[in-house]
Design brief:
Structural class of chain A: alpha+beta
Order of helices and strands of chain A: HEHEEHEEEEEHHHHH
Number of strands of chain B: 17
Number of domains of chain A: 2
CATH architecture of the largest domain in chain A: 2-Layer Sandwich
CATH class of the largest domain in chain A: Alpha Beta
Number of domains of chain B: 5
Structural class of chain B: alpha+beta
Oligomer: heterodimer
Shape of chain A: globular
Radius of gyration of chain B: 37 Å
Low-confidence stretches of chain B: none
CATH class of the largest domain in chain B: Mainly Alpha
CATH topology of the largest domain in chain A: BirA Bifunctional Protein, domain 2
Helix content of chain A: 40-55%
Mean pLDDT of chain B: 92
Helix content of chain B: 40-55%
Number of helices of chain B: 25
Chain lengths: ~300, ~725
């Protein structure tokens, strides 16, 4: 008999196994948010749900965009569109570090034959008015996860504190599949990551750096800011927050187009943060008025 | 008479505390351990316990306090309560009076327990009293240390201060990272308390991944040795030694040389692991065509990898890294680290190759797109100011014309590397890449070297530029930044110094003092030249910045003098002078300092202070020889003339100690003068003349500043 060949996980098997693991820990398996976001933290399932006293456990894949990281599909590691696997647990469980390590074993990583390190990383998002302390987790020298105890979101101190775990899915998969170029990742046995996303990287890089209409972007930024503020005054924090996300994405695109000077930059960021704070405050107020329904579960 | 009871001498036992924490940032561990030792010692002392030197150990996941010997009890103390005087306590027949009975009752004591003591023997309890008094001694038993520790230890933990702290549970306690376990033993028994919701106990864990099970601790030696078997070495020094031994062995295997002159990488590694295991990885030889500075930076930044060198100083295609794991087969881990480095080197290679397609000269115009500072314009404008300013300085100090050309060229090119791909990726290579690219472009080696050196010193106390062009350019760069920032009111306040002006100011002073050639440079003229450049570019024209900038630089000179070990009062005296040439002030302070060791110094200062005390404020004058009558004043006048002749020559020779020695000869005629003559004579002309003589003497001392500030033993 032949020994069975060592099976390496495909890209989709990786996030499927993470889904299973975190579902077993009691997380709801959420889905990617349908607006362009810079990271999983922007998803209302993290940004808004981390606020207030109600318990919350969620895990999801978030498709994320960082327009300035576009490299026309030519760089083996950098992408302007990529995937984060995001876990948010509130309150942060006492054994969370061990849970995280177990999650690595769940996709077949042997903890005792690798060098896994928690390296200081103080996280801060000036656009979201948020910060937290934690680590980047390195697997044999490679950063694979951001691990953060949130302290503040939308300018509001969190009580209870939640923990956010963000896996860089492409990096983990490249490591497991021993692939040096992200486009060579096996999404399934037949289809590569390149088949799915290479053309998008080429076209969106051109869009982000050259083709996007700067005037339209500026108009979009201003309009979503105004709209967001207007919705806040109508006590509609959820749609208002959508506009906060949109304005953040417009800002990122303007940044990639090189249309924002150093001086203007701070002003743009302050406006996004202002809206994010307003959304956070309004959301918490509404939950409070509703009697924090999830506290009773 | 009375005898207060003697307290028992207490036994001593060991204290062992271990706080289990999720990974503490590597640069926070050592300072936190130091605090743990200091705060514990302070708390135990104020609890009136004596103890042996606290020892602290730590890893990323634990902070350990061990005190081998700590008193088991506070000392028993006796309080004396003083009652009525003996004469009022007993009637003539010797029977206790109502006063005596009342006192005994009030103290809850039987009459037999009341003693009689002399007031003087009772200290504060009978302050101001005389004669014999009734006294009752109350024994105050000391508290048990095991009880005291239940509050002392959590108090100490809550006093630890970290650069950034966090909350993680509903106790609201903040700490550097979440506390997950507490081991607390005194005399092998658990000290029961809870901190941040964690209860203390007698257990701990081994290495988080290799030996996560709990085990029970009995004493420090068993704790330390069991942990060592469970892949945890608690002593950072030991881990650093192990790493050094391991990397030396690996280097030897590769016949390579290690550069451990910067030991911070070694210490950083020691503070990121519980169980150090150094391994050697490789990268492709092809990458060695990239300048080694880039490769070394790509390794060190972010990854903390150490490079290996040939004896010739060339780089070898290997790197060292320290792991926190023991395993049979390191090849997977090695491969993982190699892939990380490879990705970084691929990037570096790409940026370097792209950069080489253009020269530094090509990159001058594009600096128009790089902001120097919002109100001060672009880097391109800075370069144009720098070029003019460095040429001004070079000419001013008498540089030969070929050197001026080199300095001018270096100034034109010195900021071009800022828009190279490599510097954008690795900002710490600014200047270094400028030198490398300048050499590739065929620029003069001295100009290339000056480009690299103009950023020096990079940190407080860091190396200064060696070459003259490097020094001139460094001076010009710092002057331009300082003048510009002061010109638009970006003056550092308190802890706010976003443009690192204090460091730049100190660097400027240090360079000016480092070479004799800069002694002749007028700082005020140089600042004016720098300001003029901003005026030409229409950034600002206000020239009121000179005063605050000069004051600011004087403070930097003061800081430098302080580092050089010069006394506060001497610095203050010298710095009361106007500062145009910092080196001359520095030299004067040094001369004053060495002269302050001489026997004549104190008497001279005393005589000098007497001189200035007698001079009316703002008095100016001159002595006329024909108005001198007393032999003492004639003698003083004659000495002054000869001192003047001598010092004039000594000033020319730059012999400042000689000047001070010559001035010291004024000491005895000056004292004789004060003894023999009334300065404030009734005759107005004689009075003015004597004051004039003293004023002339005062003037001789003036180059050394305001000597009235000097503290001299009378």
């Amino acid at each position: 008999m032949y020994p069975s060949p060592k099976k390496t996980l495909t890209f989709q098997e990786l996030f499927l196994s993470l889904h299973q693991f975190w579902a077993d820990q009691g997380c709801i398996i959420h889905q990617s948010y349908d607006n362009e976001v810079g990271a999983g933290t922007f998803h209302p399932a993290t940004f808004l749900r981390a606020l207030g006293p109600e318990p919350w456990k969620a895990a999801y894949v978030q498709a994320s965009r960082r327009p300035t990281d576009g490299r026309y599909g030519e760089n083996p590691n950098r992408l302007q569109h990529y995937y984060q696997y995001q876990v948010l647990l509130k309150p942060a469980p006492d054994n969370i570090q061990d849970l995280y390590l177990e999650s690595l074993s769940s996709f077949g990583l042997s903890l005792t034959s690798h060098d896994i390190r928690f390296v200081q990383d103080d996280w801060e998002s000036p656009t979201l008015g948020a910060w937290g302390l934690g680590w980047e987790v390195r697997l044999d020298g490679m950063e694979v996860t951001q691990f953060t105890y949130f302290q503040e979101i939308g300018g509001i101190a969190l009580d209870p504190t939640s923990v956010e775990i963000t896996y860089g899915l492409e990096r983990v998969a490249m490591y497991l599949q021993e692939v040096d170029n992200v486009y060579d990742l096996a999404w399934t046995d037949q289809v590569t990551y390149g088949d799915v996303h290479h053309e998008g990287e080429v076209q969106f890089s051109e869009h982000n750096f050259n083709a996007a209409n700067v005037d339209a972007l500026k108009e979009g930024f201003n309009r979503s800011q105004e709209e967001g503020q207007a919705l806040i005054s109508k006590d509609l924090p959820l749609p208002a927050y959508d506009h906060c996300i949109k304005s953040s994405h417009f800002f990122n695109l303007l940044d990639a187009r090189g249309a924002i000077s150093v001086t203007e930059r701070t002003g743009y960021i302050a406006r996004v943060r202002g809206l994010a704070r307003a959304c956070a405050a309004s959301y918490v107020k509404q939950r409070e008025e509703a009697g924090f329904p999830l506290l009773k579960r | 008479m009375s005898t207060p009871p003697i307290p028992n001498k207490t036994e001593r036992f060991p204290l062992l505390i271990e706080i289990g924490v999720e990974e503490i940032p590597s640069n926070v561990i050592a300072p936190s351990l130091k605090q743990l030792a200091t705060l514990s010692a302070k708390a135990l002392s104020s609890a009136k316990l004596s103890f042996s030197e606290p020892q602290v150990y730590g890893t990323p996941r634990r902070m350990v306090l061990y005190i081998p010997q700590l008193d088991a009890m506070q000392e028993t103390t006796t309080d004396a309560v003083v009652g009525p005087p003996e004469r009022a306590a007993y009637d003539p027949s010797g029977k206790p009076t109502a006063a005596a009975n009342g006192f005994a009752k009030s103290q809850g004591a039987a009459l037999s327990e009341i003693q009689i003591a002399a007031a003087e023997s009772l200290g504060d309890a009978a302050k101001g009293k005389k004669g014999n008094y009734l006294v009752v001694y109350h024994l105050k038993a000391g508290q048990k240390t095991s009880d005291l520790l239940t509050t002392i230890i959590p108090d100490v933990l809550s006093q630890l201060h970290f650069p950034r702290s966090m909350r993680w549970n509903n106790t609201g306690v903040t700490f550097v990272r979440p506390v997950r376990s507490i081991l607390a033993l005194y005399n092998t028994k658990v000290i029961p308390f809870s901190f941040a919701g964690v209860s203390s106990g007698k257990q701990t864990h081994g290495h988080h991944i290799m030996s996560p099970d709990a085990f029970e601790v009995s004493d420090f030696e068993q704790y330390r040795d069991t942990l060592a078997r469970r892949y945890v070495f608690i002593d950072p020094d030991e881990r650093a030694r192990q790493i050094e031994t391991q990397i030396q062995a690996l280097a030897k295997e590769k016949k390579a040389v290690l550069d451990l002159s910067d030991r911070s990488l070694l210490w950083d590694a020691a503070y990121t692991v519980e169980y150090p295991k150094a391994i050697c990885g490789n990268f492709e030889k092809a990458f060695l065509n990239i300048p080694k500075e880039i490769i070394i930076t790509a390794m060190a930044e972010h990854q903390g990898y150490l490079p290996l060198f040939k004896k010739s100083g060339d780089l070898l295609p290997h790197f060292l890294t320290t792991l926190n794991i023991e395993t049979k087969d390191f090849s997977i881990i090695q491969k993982g680290n190699e892939r990380v480095l490879r990705a970084r080197l691929v990037d570096a290679q790409f940026y370097f190759d792209e950069d080489c397609k253009k020269t530094l000269a090509d990159r001058i115009i594009p600096l128009q797109r790089v902001t120097f500072q919002d109100k001060l314009g672009t880097m391109y404008e800075k370069v144009s100011r720098l070029t003019a300013l460095s040429v001004f300085i070079a000419r001013n100090i008498g540089c030969p014309e070929p050197d001026v050309r080199i300095i001018e060229r270096a100034a034109q090119l010195c900021k071009s590397d800022l828009i190279s791909g490599v510097v954008r990726e690795f900002t710490s290579l600014q200047g270094t890449m400028g030198r490398i690219y300048a050499r590739r472009d065929g620029e003069d080696p001295a100009a290339a070297f000056a480009i690299e050196e103009h950023y020096l010193p990079k940190f407080s106390g860091g190396p200064l530029p060696h070459s003259l062009p490097g020094q001139v350019l460094a001076i010009a760069d710092k002057l331009d930044t300082l003048t510009g920032c002061f010109g638009v009111d970006l003056i550092p306040t308190g802890s706010e110094d976003p443009y690192a002006l204090r460091r730049q100011g100190l660097g400027l002073i240090q360079i000016l003092l480092s070479q004799n050639i800069f002694k002749s440079l007028s700082l005020n003229a140089a600042i004016e030249a720098a300001r003029h450049q901003y005026e030409i570019q229409e950034k600002f024209s206000d020239d009121s910045l000179l005063k605050p900038l000069s004051r600011f630089l004087k403070q930097r000179l003061d800081a430098h003098m302080q580092t050089a070990g010069l006394r506060y009062d001497l610095r203050e005296a010298v710095l009361s002078c106007e500062m145009d040439r910092p080196a001359s002030l520095f030299d004067r302070a040094v001369a004053l300092s060495s002269f302050s060791q001489a026997a004549l110094f104190s008497p001279l200062m005393t005589a000098f202070k007497r001189t200035i005390r007698i001079l009316p404020k703002g008095f100016k004058g001159k002595a006329a020889p024909d108005l001198l009558s007393d032999p003492a004043e004639k003698q003083l006048y004659a000495t002054l003339q000869s001192v003047r002749e001598t010092t004039e020559r000594l000033w020319q020779e730059d012999n400042l100690t000689g000047v001070l020695e010559a001035l010291a000869t004024l000491h005895s005629p000056l004292n004789a003068f004060f003894d023999a003559v009334m300065v404030m004579d009734k005759d107005e002309r004689i009075r003015q003349n004597r004051l004039g003589l003293l004023f002339e003497i005062k003037q001789e001392f003036e180059p050394f500043g305001d000597l009235s500030r000097v503290v001299a033993e009378e």
